[in-house]
Design brief:
binds 2-acetamido-2-deoxy-beta-D-glucopyranose, signal, To_sf, biological rhythms, 5 helices, Haemolymph_juvenile_hormone-bd
Length: about 250
């Protein structure tokens, strides 16, 4: 066999087979889970990690996180006489790489994993396409177009929970829960509407949204949180289920 083909096959096997061989320290600083300075170490590791993860880590299949692209999101909102259905597509969330990590708190033992990270982000932009349908009593509105939202001064804590589990490749932490509830300094949104029948209402809707953003943010937070929980678990497990617990959080001491 041609030496080039042979090498290619060997490389292909090596790069798809043994996750244990991924040299994670190439991408992420790792921290001794039993060290007295583990929280300081993690604060720094996650700060550097955000920059490394911004463009994703192709080798282990971690998607780019800044901008993070979500294919779609469906929301159905009901409140007294109001019924709204929203499908958002091609959503981009941009700004995470400008986050500052302030503190980390790790509780990692043999049967439980819990990590809290305090972060702030100066500005986040969320944009995409939407298709919306709203009903207020007998009034029905349909709209579609683009949306853009800018949030500033976000203050939040990521809480990750997981359980170590063993499989044939070693012991891994499976992240089972991801939680955050950002405090937001300001929020400004803009919708365009390509539906001529409801276009007149769009500016009214935009004004209402921007004047009442705190109320709307609070109302929509549970939907956003359910979405973040799903994304957080999925992205975290792209790392946690591929790098063994002892590689990611060695216990040297
Ligand atoms: C163990 O590693 C192999 C090779 O990378 C992979 O195909 C398999 O899915 C892994 N097993 C589990 C349970 O993740
Ligand atoms: C959000 O910020 C971007 C970049 O500064 C800007 O282009 C966009 O128009 C802003 N959107 C809103 C709704 O203010």
């Amino acid at each position: 066999m041609n030496i080039f083909i042979k090498n290619t096959i060997v490389l292909a096997i090596l790069s798809t087979c043994c996750y244990g061989l991924v040299d994670i320290e190439k991408y992420l600083k790792v921290c001794d889970r039993n060290s007295a300075e583990v929280n300081d170490c993690l604060t720094e590791a996650v700060q550097e990690g955000l920059a490394a993860l911004a463009d994703g880590i192709e080798e282990i299949g971690v998607p780019p996180i800044d901008p993070y692209r979500q294919k779609d999101l469906r929301i159905e909102y009901k409140n007294n006489q109001i019924l709204a259905k929203l499908v958002a597509k091609d959503i981009y969330v941009e700004g995470l790489k400008t986050a500052t990590v302030h503190d980390a708190r790790l509780r990692a033992d043999d049967d439980r994993f819990h990590l809290e990270l305090d972060l702030t982000t100066p500005r986040v932009n969320i944009r995409g396409q939407y298709l919306g349908e709203g009903r207020y009593n007998s009034l029905q509105i349909k709209a579609h177009g683009h949306f853009s939202t800018n949030m500033t001064n976000l203050v939040y804590t990521w809480k990750l929970d997981g359980v170590p589990e063993k499989n044939e490749n070693g012991t891994f932490v499976r992240i089972t829960d991801f939680y955050m509830r950002p405090d937001v300094g300001s929020m400004k949104s803009h919708l365009t509407n390509d539906n001529p029948d409801s276009r007149d209402l769009t500016e009214l809707g935009n004004r209402f949204t921007n004047q009442n953003w705190r109320l709307l943010y609070r109302e929509l937070l549970p939907y956003a949180q359910a979405n973040w929980n799903k994304i957080g678990i999925s992205v975290a497990n792209k790392i946690f289920l591929k790098i063994t617990y002892d590689q990611l959080f060695p216990s040297k001491s």
